[in-house]
Amino acid sequence: MLKQIKSDIYHLLHPKMAFFLTSVSKNDKPNVMTCAWATPVSEEPPVVIVCVSKESYTAELIKQTKEFVINIPTKKLLGALWICGKISGRDTDKFKRAGLKIIKAKKVKSPVIDGCVGHIECKVWKTVDAGECYAFFGNVISAYADEKYMRNGLWTKEAEIPLHLGGARIVYFR
User: Fold this and answer.
1) Which 8-state DSSP code applies to residue 148?
2) What is the pLDDT of residue 168?
3) Residue 173, pLDDT score
4) Is the pTM of this model over 0.85?
5) Using an 8 Å Cβ cutoff, are 51 and 16 in contact?
6) 54, 59, 94, 154: least CB-packed within 10 angstroms?
7) Pairing mode, if any, of strands 150-151 and 154-155?
8) What is the pLDDT of residue 142?
9) Helix (H, G, I), strand (E, B) or coil at 132
10) Using CA atoms, how far apart are residues 25 and 30, in angstroms rounded to an integer?
11) Alpha-carbon distance 112 to 119, whole Å?
12) Structural contact between residues 104 and 26, judged by C-beta atoms closer than 8 angstroms
């Protein structure tokens, strides 16, 4: 028997990859948040979309600077994922709090997170008002992955990519 879903409809589309979304302020102050709402929307040209709460500091920064980076972690960074998903970067240095090290990105000012196995650097092409979120369409400027964990365009089982099930539940891609 099928049950009517009235709230949390997005759970029907989970699991989703959990990742770090990095951004930067106009005066080059880096920021990071945990996110799971992203998807590719075009292969040619390569475009991804991330959806971020309008109330978040991250949304404010992305609207200002028109760029972001998707950083794909392994389960080794699970503790940092939880920290970066529970506090705001407005008044807290989440990188320091979560023990994350910043690396300079290849093509954008938003930082890359050391220890992640993949990175997608984006420039915002379009922003759409999407309910309580902004949907940021990002032109992919640069994308790269650790060849130890990605072969022939696919993640290996050793990558153990965290997948968000909804709420406080995470499983690992194997």
Assistant:
1) T
2) 77
3) 62
4) yes
5) no
6) 154
7) antiparallel
8) 98
9) coil
10) 6
11) 7
12) no
User: Per the structure block, which two tokens stand in for 52?
Assistant: 């971020």
Distance CA 11, CA 15 (A): 8
Residue type (1 letter), 103: I
Query: Which residues of the chain fall below pLDDT 50?
Result: none
If residue 161 lies in a helix (H) or strand (E), which one and from where to where? none
Residue with token string 């997608």: 120
CATH at residue 124:
2.30.110.10
Is 122 in contact with 65 (CB distance < 8 Å)? no
Residue among 161, 165, 174 nearest 19 (CA): 161
Q: DSSP per residue over 18-30, as a string?
A: -EEEEEE-TT--E
Amino acid at 26: K
- Residue 53 tokens read as 């709460």
Hey, what are 60's tokens?
């404010």
pLDDT tens figures, 56-82: 999 999 999 999 999 999 999 999 999
The boundaries of the domain holding residue 95 are 15-168
Total count of domains within the chain: 1
Instruction: State both tokens at 107.
Output: 């093509």
